[in-house]
Amino acid sequence: MPELSPGATPVTGQQLVADLHDLGLPAGATVMVHTSLRSLGWVIGGTQTVLAALREAVGPDGTLVMPTQSWQLCDPEMLQEAPAQWWPTIRDHLPLYDPATTPSQTMGAIAELFRTSPDALRSPHPHRSVSAAGPDAARVTARHPLESPAGEDSPLGAMVGLDAWILLLGVTAAKITALHLAEHRAGYPGKRTIPNGVAMLVDGRREWVTWEELDVHDHDFVEVTDAFAADTGLVRVGRVGDAQARLIPMRPLVEYVAEWFETHRGRA
Question: Is residue 7 part of a domain?
Fold first, then answer.
């Protein structure tokens, strides 16, 4: 739990719902949530309360989406976390991706709880999955090509088509997964693909499957999101619990950022 400042009070689910409404989160929206539980304050009930508040805020006609990526299944050569002499053994023994049971990694406690919800659907990408619940969940999670985890045919492309929102709760714009779609759309110096792979069943047999995917980066996500906010006035800023919150329309953000990358990224 977070350290308590003088005069701090516990945060209730009702307060979170009210704060989300004050921020402007529309009922019935499709919204991709990036959140830090600690930043919200001393929430009574923790992750369970936060998830319930998000569901109540969007209502039964809304669709929640959260990243539930599982980096632990990536090719060890790409991760560069283990000695090269171990890579063949790792590839031979990595678990298979199972949408129902493979845990997310570094996505946060709220996203991990959401992934296990009985009504949550999870996209099929073994590394870059998202989970979704609500009327548009099937559309969001249906397609997720191995070689294009953040491209037009991914859940990110589907959400742009749904005019989804991005909700940041206590995290910076560096966490905005949707900006990787802008990387796919843009041309910029140094843009390249890198190899990746995963263990999976092919015709009932375990195989190591490889592909090339875009080498993505988030080093300028904060800068470009700040520029988008200043130039368009479309970013809504407020407080949810104790956290700074931002609500951003996904389609105009991705369109703006793709153009920004074209003229700024990789150029002196």
Answer: no
Domain limits for position 160:
13-264
DSSP letter string, 77-111: HHHT-S-GGGHHHHHHHPPPP-TTTPPPSSS-HHH
DSSP state of 72: G
pLDDT single digits (tens) 108-145: 999 999 999 999 999 999 999 999 999 999 999 999 99
DSSP 41: -
Q: Which residues pair with 199 in a beta bridge?
A: 208
CA dist 202 and 208 (Å) reads: 9
Read off the pLDDT of residues 179-223 as tens digits, 9 standing for 90 and up: 999 999 999 999 999 999 999 999 999 999 999 999 999 999 999
Which tokens sit at 79? 């991760």
Count of the separate structural domains present in the chain: 1
- pTM: predicted TM-score of the whole model, two decimal places: 0.95
